[in-house]
Amino acid sequence: MTGSSVGLGACQIAELVKSKQISAVEVTQEHLALNEFYDSALHSFLEITEAAAISTAKEIDAKIAKGEDAGLLAGVPIALKDNLVTRGIATTCASQILKGWKPPYSATVVKKVSGAGGVSLGKTNLDEFAMGSSTENSSFGPTRNPYDLKRVPGGSSGGSAAAVAAKFVPLALGSDTGGSIRQPAALCGIVGVKPTYGTVSRYGLIAFASSLDQVGPLARNVKDAALLLQVIAGHDPKDSTSLVDATPDFVSVIDHGVEGLRVGIIEELVDGVAPMVGEALKASAASLTSQGATVEYVSVPAVAYGLSAYYLIAPAEASSNLARYDGVRYGLRVEGQDMNETYVASRTKGFGAEVKRRIMLGTFALSSGYYDAYYGKAQKVRTMIIGSFKKAYEQFDVLLSPTAPTTAFELGAKAADPLSMYLSDVCTIPTNLAGHPAMSVPYGLGENQMPIGIQVLAPALGEANMFRVAAAIENDAPPISKTLFWE
Amino acid sequence: MVDDSVFSDVAPQFLPGWEIVVGLEVHCELRTKTKLFCGCANSFGREPNTNICPVCLGLPGSLPVINEQAVELAVRIGLSLNCTVDESIFHRKNYFYPDMPKDYQVSQYEKAINENGYLELPLSRKIVRIERAHIEEDTGKSTHVGGDNGRIHGADHSLVDYNRAGIPLVEIVSAPDLRSAEEAREYVSELRSILVASGASDGKMEEGSLRVDANVSVRQLGLSEFGTRCEIKNLNSLRSLVRAIGYEAQRQVALIESGGKIIQQTRHWNEDQGVTSAMRSKEEAYDYRYFPEPDLVPLSPSSEWITEIKGRIGLLPASRRERLAVLFDGVSSGSTFDQIVTAVNLGLDDLIVGSVESGADPRLALARATNEVAGDLEKLSNLTVEKFSDLIKMESERKLSATQAKNVLAQMLVSGATALDIAKAMGFEALDSSVIEDLVDQVISSSPREWERFSAGEDQLAGFFIGQIMKLSKGKADGKVVTSILRSKR
Predict the structure, then answer these.
(1) Does domain B433-489 sit in CATH 1.10.10.410?
(2) How open is the CA angle A167-A7-A402, to the nearest 5 degrees?
(3) For A457, which of A399, B227, B296, B442 could close a Cys bridge (C-beta 3.0–4.6 Å)?
(4) Domains in chain A, ordered, with CATH?
(5) Residue B171 pLDDT > 50
(6) Per residue in A74-131, pLDDT tens?
């Protein structure tokens, strides 16, 4: 079943395609075939754009035949989280309210990926509007974990993470507002990166919480993730929050080693995680020490308040960002007797329970008389968290923590208890509040035979050191010695 | 409740013992090339929903990028209104309405780009404080079909045109410093002139380039506390503004005098019926849930840039009036000054100053501009300073009579031809005084008895002689010349 390119990394595939050892069309067809066979069990994709993928692959082969540069991602299959708008291709955010909507334009990252020769195979599943940590909140049904179909892949970029882990694609794009790239990467045993806020354009990323959202790569190894970040990073005049700094070379730094780097383990994020996760963290720290880094514990006290601040700021912004889905211009409309009834009926039917919960939370937090106590206070906590990190980064180049407190849980285990679900993101949220980069790198399996992720955090624009440390952890990590559901 | 229909629509009414307090919010569309946050053209009158893009339609995933030209024009407004121009941020004003694509409006709330300025009214010299002049995006335009008078309640269906969505606006908020409908009119009129002179606006109220909301309250004379105010929305002409304030003040006074209480509310002005009616009360007011717009970064205009902008602002109305006043011994009140104010408000001052510089008589130029040219402003582009100045000179040199000059000027505005050509074509070449003297002699000899009586002091016969002479000259003789010849021969 598996063709010669399935299971290879992005860098390898691009090399083979450029050197004409394999054609982009073959690579595409091999990956599409795997999807075709097995995704019904996994449900990582919401839509597969087969015809477009093959025609893109043909163009790349034609370019290469003419001796032209086909780009960093020449012929590499890639999956796009379905909150990235794609011209003429349905973009749903896994919500009934956007079902059938075909955007008239493409996100900047989507254009960059195709400009670099990437071949999009389709749109992946997510928690509705990226709100969730298990992909169970998709209104089109959950995605499953490719290492155990009874378990969740994490979320909200669960479809992207599962597709990469299942070898359906070597690369995927996700979005991370509070951990939505890193947590599913950890739960699926792959690499996931949330870049510094402003490094990657948000133009065409359907907003959940604008001040926290960031697009980033998911891949099966650190180098591939760095390669994809290289492609999508850079200033975009269409995004006012996009940074103007020149993009550094992320790929070349990863084998620079960690000799002399100062690594701090965040004390506050060690207690309260599953023991097997704690063990993995210690082992990864020991491995870094053995590779020449200095590792110490450090207190970053304000991270303890991250979750509370996040669940005011993110819903507040979401309540405003999601107001436009009102049944007037696009998406679902449920006719009422008058304008207000139409609004209410459309939104009642179109949004799922978690989205409604967050819209209400956010609306309340911004209400007159409550603003200062909730949204205003949360913004102060955010400033405090930035200050707390700043202090830690005076002594350390990067910080370390678990990515998620547990390994992948079973479907339904937390669905009825929003608060315990929210706690899945306790380690990842502070980074988003600070606007810093962080990534998850796999570190073997827990006693339940499910993958564990280690989170590497860095100060703003500290991606180079982050990638170096992640690569060092990856070099020395125990393998994920378990077969995928289809293997 | 007082029946709204009892008030006359003649405004302003004199309300003995009461004082009207007015604060105005003027929304000014900026004359930029493109919209506030996207590259769509800033234009008026296109087919509905043809001047739109993902950004101004608020499509999922789209993001705003601030238009630098809009910021510059906003700064020009701030500087022209003596405001402090400083770092500012954008907020989102959240409420649901179909003509608002994102169901929030991007506006400035806490820190406006321009704050704490003032404007001086030209006639009363009153200082009106400007609290702020902030940037915001316009909404689309709803048309409600059927039902109650074009309003959404009771309409059969509504149409929305998003062409206007995202047009840059500056909202200029005055302090409650105005004390009559007439003052409010003078304020808006002066503000309009400033906005046009600064290059920020085309000032076209009839096209919606300027839209006014009026906060009106009344209080008994002598009281220092303000009464409860009502906000009248969308007053789109100076006439509506004056009528609406007059009506609203009368309504409030009548309500209070009959023992009622003013409820703070937003009111709608009905132009046809000449009344305001309640839209929503304070209790029903939206909670806009303002919060900082996370998709935009703070605006921090540098002091160098502000200085550059200052240099690009043209002459403002006050300087323009001064420039005219020096031609009239620095007049600062009276009918000549009123004419000067009118000339500046109508943008005719360049014409007058230019013609005086090339030798035209100032008083005549001012009169012809504010009377005749003002009557046909749309045709102003047909008139050059040179042509206007030639006409004024012909009139003051008595080559044209006053009536002839007015007729020639009217034709000049229509056709754009020179005064001389039109005067010739109309047969208006004035007779020189020797010809007129011959005519005077002819009339005297044909009416010796009347001449005798006139010479003896019967002044009322002057009319008879002038009439006869004008008849003989077929209207070409200058009345003033005729009169002086008659006098000299008596």
Answers:
(1) yes
(2) 60
(3) A399
(4) 10-256+409-475 (3.90.1300.10)
(5) yes
(6) 999 999 999 999 999 999 999 999 988 999 999 999 999 999 999 999 999 999 999 9
